[in-house]
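Lab meeting, item 3. Inverse folding demo.
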């Protein structure tokens, strides 16, 4: 597998497949409502509460109520409707979305891409690292905020909140091994009911105070800032919680398609959220003391316990979506060469995108439990929540600016104006969230820093390792001329995996040194992961006859696809007789890395970290799905 560089990009319209959903639009919309909008749909549980009672409390009076609600309404409008629905969703990378998809779309099309590539790569990696912090906090804050509704039903239940939340979270992570296909079928209908309840809770209170509809006038937000600019700026950190989960719209485009996600937002999700927020505002106009938990206090007392159960289910769905997203992002990072091979299980025969990565699952569970025990309240966790999301959105805005200007070739004033607006909004929210670093915002930054170190160390280590191997590599053409005809040949086929199809793999030289024979047919196999989500089957294989029974074979994969070497080799019909796995041997080279100060490629501690990751990674045999009884591993030592 090759690391993400501008040199490894397929031509713009060649060798790639457009991947997208084919189901009917209503079915896709139902799925989008269940999966895409779970996170942003649960934001009303804590956004208003945190805005008034968070780290920077506000007076519960008409000015602040109208000001906060106006900010929420226009934040949803500018960030979700304008930035994501109107602009980002147009950045369709063969049907896929998300940070890596946007990154590869830009890198493949901009002029002077070799200059831009390193910066773009770092931005994409940083966005991924920030996402991991989000993936840890989302389940903890969502489930905690729902279970805290029990204290509204009965104050004496407060001591049970943390144990119940931990029990739900543990159960959620335990069922990941079974896949999400069956549970996913229930997501849409449940969330449809949930959004209907959101609207139904808000409407009666709006009817009592119809003047609350005036929050759609942005002058209320302006009045809020004019009255107390400092407090209004600090309040942005809590107001921003209303759009947590907005990145999922773009990231899940490949699963449900642009139309389904956009229509679901405009026709259902946005109106229901707006009605609920307005209802909470109207409630606060009547009863300022309701700021302690305005979401649950919207409901009549007999309906609060059922609402707690419905909200808890909704938060579980929101958590499931972000956990599945962590699996997907990790898989892409592995394919693109930023993480070592990790054991990956496919949990659905029909949906290839549904995967389960044990190391990620249990790592997330451990961190989520620590967060719940460490913060114990959703309010305290809210301080840690915003930085990861605002950081990711800020990066997306930068990349969208490059896309509009250099790829879509928009008018410079239009592209510059849109980018400036995105950066102004995201930058303001990011700056406000920075003030919450002492209150918990340090956590996602710490996670992002550790993740960034790991991802960049692995990518740099692999690059250095390939350079060291290339220094002593022998050109394949020279080897064939000198040894192809003189060495004793035996029946069968041997496949040697190599990082390059033009040089002799170390495993081949070791095998020849020890066994002094070659098979009748020898394949030098290079697996290349391209900067596109999917590669069409007809462009998967690239076979070159090198002479004397040697063949150079390159397998092309998209970064969202799984590698299956035996399956794809079986399709080759241009190099002799068909492949028979019982007469084919696979030879793998396994390098043992020796950390040393001899070379100045990386700091010694990073070399040791890379060596540990190399040793801990899943074997190439399992990752490439090679038959266990047909693999030979040959080891060597290497210093980088």
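The presenter then showed the designed sequence:
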């Amino acid at each position: 597998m090759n690391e993400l560089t501008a040199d490894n990009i397929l031509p713009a319209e060649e060798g790639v497949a457009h991947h997208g959903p084919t189901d009917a639009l209503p079915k896709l919309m139902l799925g989008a409502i269940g999966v895409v909008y779970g996170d942003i749909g649960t934001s009303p549980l804590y956004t208003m509460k945190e805005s008034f009672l968070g780290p920077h409390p506000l007076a519960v009076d008409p000015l602040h109520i109208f000001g906060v609600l106006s900010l929420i309404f226009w934040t949803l409008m500018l960030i979700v409707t304008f930035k994501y629905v109107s602009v980002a969703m147009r950045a369709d990378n063969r049907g896929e979305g998300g940070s890596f998809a946007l990154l590869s779309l830009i890198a493949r099309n901009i002029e002077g891409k070799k200059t831009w590539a390193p910066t773009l790569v770092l931005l994409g990696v940083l966005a991924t690292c920030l996402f991991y912090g989000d993936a840890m906090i989302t389940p903890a804050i969502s489930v905690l905020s729902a279970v805290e509704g029990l204290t509204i039903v009965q104050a004496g239940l407060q001591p049970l909140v943390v144990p119940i939340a931990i029990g739900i979270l543990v159960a959620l992570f335990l069922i990941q091994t079974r896949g999400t296909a069956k549970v996913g079928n229930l997501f849409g209908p449940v969330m449809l009911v949930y959004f209907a309840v959101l609207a139904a809770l808000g409407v009666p209170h709006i009817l009592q105070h119809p003047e609350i509809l005036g929050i759609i006038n942005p002058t209320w937000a302006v009045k809020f800032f004019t009255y107390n600019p400092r407090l209004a700026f600090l309040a942005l950190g809590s107001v921003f919680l209303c759009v947590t989960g907005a990145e999922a719209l773009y990231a899940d485009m490949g699963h449900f398609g642009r139309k389904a996600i956009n229509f679901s937002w405009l026709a259902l999700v946005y109106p229901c959220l707006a009605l609920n927020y307005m209802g909470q505002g109207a409630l606060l106009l009547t009863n300022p003391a309701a700021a302690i938990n305005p979401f649950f206090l919207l409901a009549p007392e007999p309906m609060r316990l059922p609402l707690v159960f419905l909200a808890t289910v909704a938060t579980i769905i929101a958590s499931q979506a972000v956990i599945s997203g962590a699996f997907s992002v990790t898989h892409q990072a592995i394919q693109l060469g930023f993480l070592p091979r990790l054991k990956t299980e496919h949990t659905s025969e029909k949906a290839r995108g549904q995967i389960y990565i044990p190391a990620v699952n249990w790592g997330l569970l451990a961190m989520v439990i620590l967060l719940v025990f460490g913060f114990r309240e959703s309010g305290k966790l809210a301080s840690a929540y915003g930085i990861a999301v605002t950081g990711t959105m800020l990066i997306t805005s930068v990349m969208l600016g490059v896309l509009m200007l250099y790829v879509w070739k928009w008018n410079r004033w239009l592209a510059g104006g849109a980018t400036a607006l995105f950066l102004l909004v995201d930058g303001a929210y990011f700056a406000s969230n920075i003030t919450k670093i002492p209150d918990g915002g340090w956590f996602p930054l710490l996670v992002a820093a550790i993740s960034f170190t790991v991802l960049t160390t692995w990518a740099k280590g692999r690059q250095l390792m390939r350079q060291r191997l290339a220094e002593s590599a022998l050109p394949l053409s020279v080897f064939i001329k000198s040894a192809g005809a003189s060495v004793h040949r035996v029946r069968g086929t041997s496949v040697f995996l190599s990082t390059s199809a033009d040089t002799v793999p170390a495993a081949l030289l070791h095998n020849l040194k020890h066994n002094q024979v070659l098979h009748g047919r020898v394949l030098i196999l290079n697996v290349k992961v391209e900067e596109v989500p999917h590669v069409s089957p007809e462009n998967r294989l690239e076979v070159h006859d090198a002479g004397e029974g040697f063949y150079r074979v390159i397998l092309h994969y998209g970064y969202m696809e799984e590698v299956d070497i035996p399956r794809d080799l079986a399709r080759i019909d241009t190099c002799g007789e068909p492949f028979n796995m019982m007469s084919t041997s696979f030879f793998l080279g396994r390098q043992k890395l020796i950390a040393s100060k001899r070379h100045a490629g990386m700091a010694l501690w990073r070399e040791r970290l890379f060596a540990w990751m190399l040793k801990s990674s899943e074997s190439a045999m399992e990752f490439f799905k090679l038959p266990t009884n047909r693999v030979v591993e040959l080891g060597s030592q290497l210093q980088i």
